[in-house]
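Ticket #4471: structure export looks truncated?
Reporter: QA, pipeline team
Priority: medium

Steps to reproduce: submit the single chain below to the structure queue and open the exported record.
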Amino acid sequence: MTRQGGRLAAVFLALAVLAGALAACSPRPSAETLEKPAKDVFAAVQAATLAVDLRIKDSTTAAAGSTAADDMLGEVESATDEVEGFTAPTEKEKSLRDDMLATFATISRALLHARDALTAPGNAEQQEQGQSGSGVDGLPEVLGELRSATDQLKALMTKAGIQ
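Actual output as written to the record:
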């Protein structure tokens, strides 16, 4: 190898090491880095809300609504994992990340309730088994929970400057 080729190889090696080091750094939880996970979760909770609303109106099946809620729960889990990977060196950034994670947890619980209510047996079957407050009868309450979680996320997005 020539002297110039050796230098060129050393420069490429240094650049590769630098690129690897930069890639290993986790992003800081700014409005820009939180925008994608927040919007993903917002879309997920909107889709689940629509599925519950359609089920209340008997415009979809329980299985379709349950599948939608379960799929949206997966979206929220992915966004949560992404936000958990952010470093927060300042108190403001830590607070923003923690608020986002708390809101995502609230939405996850609402999605779990939606999925459970959508897969619960029908009202006649519940009464035979001595159960109440789930299934189709519990969907209006679940819808309210999803809407409340959506409002919480919208407020946090506004506070963070996410449009």
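Status: closed, not a bug. The export was complete when the record was re-opened. Leaving a note from the reviewer for reference: Confidence is low (pLDDT under 50) at residues 10-25, 123-133.
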